[in-house]
């Protein structure tokens, strides 16, 4: 059974140019995104403590995302790049959160599926960054490894949804959210940020 998705819209080539033009800002944003990803996994544990089947995987995902934050921080520290003083609002995440249903059950499904889509978008973008870092072997390998990890996380969240919802319902909603994400990504300003 397919647990991931093909993104409906590819990232525009200009995005990689924006990242390469200001790699320090990208690294700062990336660190913030890893902190938020860890917090998201742990917030799902806190919000849905009765969902026993997925709690161990959510905890493992939260820990892994925190390890990614630590790795990005180590890269930044070696390069003399400080953490951002404040975490700004992410227009991509804000637009995705606006898609969430408000009732408890459908919101639970949406949160899992949006987490999958966000991870898949991250994987795509880490692959693009890795490919653009030809001379920086350390960072190229780092982003290659993250690309593989994020792609796996995309599978994890769909698998979690299938623990609680019928397959047809999961994939229909995943298709709807994926199409909406494509429209959102197509309208975003190109900036040196993960989203």
Secondary structure: elements and pairs:
Elements (H helix, E strand, L loop, with lengths): L12 H9 L1 H25 L7 H24 L12 H7 L6 H29 L4 H28 L2 H20 L9
Helix pairs in contact: 2-3, 3-6, 5-6, 5-7
Describe this structure in words.
The chain has 195 residues and is mainly alpha-helical. The chain has a single domain (14-186), classed as Ferritin, CATH 1.20.1260.10. It has seven helices and no strands. Helix 2 packs antiparallel against helix 3 and helix 3 packs antiparallel against helix 6 (137-164). It is globular. The two termini are 29 Å apart.
Low-confidence stretches: none
Largest sheet: none
Order of helices and strands: HHHHHHH
CATH top-level class:
Mainly Alpha
- CATH superfamily (homologous) name: Ferritin, core subunit, four-helix bundle
C-alpha termini separation: 29 Å
| Number of helices, counting only DSSP H or I runs of 4 residues or more | 7
Please state the second-level CATH architecture.
Up-down Bundle
Number of domains: 1
Strand content: under 5%
Tell me the radius of gyration: 16 Å
**Fold-level CATH name:** Ferritin
Mean pLDDT: 93
Q: Which class best fits the helix and strand makeup? A: mainly alpha
List keywords for this structure.
195 residues; mainly alpha; Ferritin
In a nutshell, what does this entry contain?
By secondary structure, the protein is mainly α. It has seven helices and no strands. The chain has a single domain, classed as Ferritin, CATH 1.20.1260.10.
């Amino acid at each position: 059974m397919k647990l991931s998705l093909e993104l409906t819209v590819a990232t525009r080539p200009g995005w990689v140019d924006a990242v390469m033009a200001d790699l320090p800002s990208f690294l700062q944003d990336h660190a913030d995104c890893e902190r938020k990803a860890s917090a998201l996994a742990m917030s799902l544990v806190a919000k849905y403590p009765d969902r026993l089947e997925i709690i161990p995987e959510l905890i493992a995902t939260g820990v892994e995302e925190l390890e990614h934050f630590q790795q990005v921080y180590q890269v930044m520290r070696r390069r003399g790049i400080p953490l951002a003083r404040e975490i700004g609002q992410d227009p991509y995440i804000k637009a995705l959160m606006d898609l969430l249903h408000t009732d408890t059950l459908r919101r639970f499904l949406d949160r899992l599926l949006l987490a999958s889509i966000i991870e898949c978008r991250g994987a795509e973008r880490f692959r693009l960054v890795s490919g653009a870092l030809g001379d920086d072997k350390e960072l190229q390998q780092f982003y290659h490894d993250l690309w593989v990890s994020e792609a796996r996380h995309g599978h994890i969240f769909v698998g979690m949804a299938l623990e609680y919802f019928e397959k047809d319902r999961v994939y229909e909603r995943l298709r709807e959210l994926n199409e909406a994400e494509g429209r959102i990504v197509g309208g975003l300003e190109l900036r040196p940020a993960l989203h």
